[in-house]
Amino acid sequence: MQKGRRTKSRHGKKGRFHWPLLLVGAVVLISIPKAWQMGSEWIAVQNAIREASAVEEPAEDFRPDVGEPPYTIAVDAGHGGDDPGATGIVVEKDMTAQTAEDLMEWLRADPNYIPVTTRESYDTTATPMERAEASNHQHPDLLLSIHGNSAAAEASGFECYPITPGRVWHRESVYFARLLASGMEAAGSTLRGQNGIRYIYYENGEKVLAEANDLRVREEETFTLLEESNCPAVLAEQCFVTSAADVDRFGDQDGCALTAQVYYQAICSYFGTQPVEAPAA
Ligand SMILES: [Zn+2]
């Protein structure tokens, strides 16, 4: 822009001195280095802002703006129908359905919450996109997707995936993820990664894992359900279905009930409500 303007003022009428034009030209010439410097400073400032936003971690005193109850909670039981998920000591779809139903009972007992699901029934087969659309259609305030982990080698513990850095609901999702992880730790689970929170990205069809402190804003998408969700959302891997010790504590019938209670209390902490004493009968 500056260069264009200078060229124009220099090429006025030829052959005659125009003192006012000459004066303007001189002023413009003098100001070019200054403008150039300001331009590069501006670029530096913009870069600094971009870098700062890429590493901005939710402050410890951050609290989501939750508004007034009742709050609609989308409970997504992972897999189901024709999709069993991982198979180990238990089948993932059975564990997620059991945990989701137990969580629904807690939420049904609490007038602060309206629980909704992402499928017609636990036997319905649905893609992540269909689940996201079903959830968004019901305008939830929070979404929890329940899954189980699996590994060929010995592995155990809890981890969960919030909406990724740079996305609209990132901070709220991390806030919820922290409550879930600390609740599971208090219940006796070990936390994987950095305090049980990780990010997943799909790079050329491959799942790439990033730890919680890797807050770079990436173009790669995370789980479709999280990517498409119109509210804060977390996908939780409550335990390894391939670990006998994990299933015993968090994956069998009692384990699902315990995990559902942890999830319910994390939801209450997120919205700042007093938990009820017992789930609906
Ligand atoms: Zn799963």
Structure explained in plain terms:
The chain is of the alpha/beta class and 281 residues long. The protein folds into 2 domains: 2-54; 71-271, Aminopeptidase. 43% of the residues lie in helices and 16% in strands. It is built from 8 helices and 7 strands; from the N terminus they run ααβαβαββαββαβαα. The protein has helices at 2-10, 19-54, 92-109, 128-137, 170-186, 224-228, 244-251, 253-271, and strands spanning 71-77, 113-117, 142-149, 159-162, 198-203, 206-211, 233-240. Strands 2-1-3-7-4 form a 5-stranded mixed sheet, with helices on both faces. Helix 3 links the parallel strand 1 and strand 2 (113-117). Helix 3 packs across helix 8 (253-271). The chain is globular, with a radius of gyration of 27 Å. The model is unreliable at 1-16 (pLDDT under 50). Bound molecules: zinc ion.
